[in-house]
Amino acid sequence: KKIINVLLIIYVVYQAIKAVQVLIDYMVERALKKDKQAGSKQIIGLIGKISKGILWALGGLMILSNLGINVTSLVAGLGVGGIAIALAVQNILGDLFSSFAILFDKPFVPGDFIIIGTHKGTVEKIGIKTTRIRSVNGEEIVISNKELTSARIQNFQKLKERRAVINFGVTYETPTSKVKKIPKMIKQIIKNEKDAKFDRAHFSKFDDSALTFEVIYFVKSDEYAKYMDINQKILLKIKTEFEKEKIDMAYPTQTIYMAKE
To answer: What are the tens digits of pLDDT across the range 108-146?
Structure first.
């Protein structure tokens, strides 16, 4: 009778584990359909395998307990062994848990252009231990996930518009009437550009060899190439208008005045 009871318990535990496994497989499959990135697939698959491993371990302990084996000392021993293993592989585990954090928090995804410290480039792959970035110079940068989760990351993919700042100077010989016209002239040039949004234009300071102006506007695009195209168009229009108005751009010069005795 005792053997029948044990076999019955083993059967019930086995069926329960199989049922929970079906649920885990369903959740993993659903997560994979939502997130089709290669790195995420690896991490989601790993989570599924770890969950199943824990499930089978718990089921085994339940069976051993019903067989009359004292599992308390076994669990204690496993706990001490687990701590020893964890200390030995703490760097790997740190990267693994960091990859989980990146997966769920999504500070960036493959295809995003990011800057981390002195490194910048496009994210190509988020792996279990490392993330691979293709730099602007073409080389591949491999950074540990642990380092990424503790670093300040600038993600330009989520940028909706780009801020542009233009500083230029005109000569001190420029008449005050024309100096007053320059901010309005710049404002009109930027407003005529449909993908640009004017912010401000001011005569900002007296420099050593120029009357300096500061102009700020926004480009309504997250594409860097488009930002540069619009910036170039605006700069060329400013140069053209200055030539029409006979306003001279300043460059570093030095004037020496000599007094006659």
So the answer is: 888 888 888 888 889 888 877 888 999 988 899 999 888
Kind of pairing between the strands at 211-219 and 140-144: unpaired
Contact at 8 Å (CB) between 175 and 136? Answer: no
| Strand arrangement, sheet containing 211-219 | 162-170, 211-219, 196-206
For residues 162 and 246, what is the distance between their CA atoms, to the nearest angstrom?
31
Cut 0.90: pTM above it: no
Closest CA to 113 of 93, 98, 135, 91: 135
Q: SS3 breakdown of the chain: % helix, strand, coil, rounded to 5?
A: 55, 20, 25
Task: With CA atoms as reference, report the closest residue to 222 among 157, 149, 127, 153.
Answer: 157
CA distance 34 to 51: 20
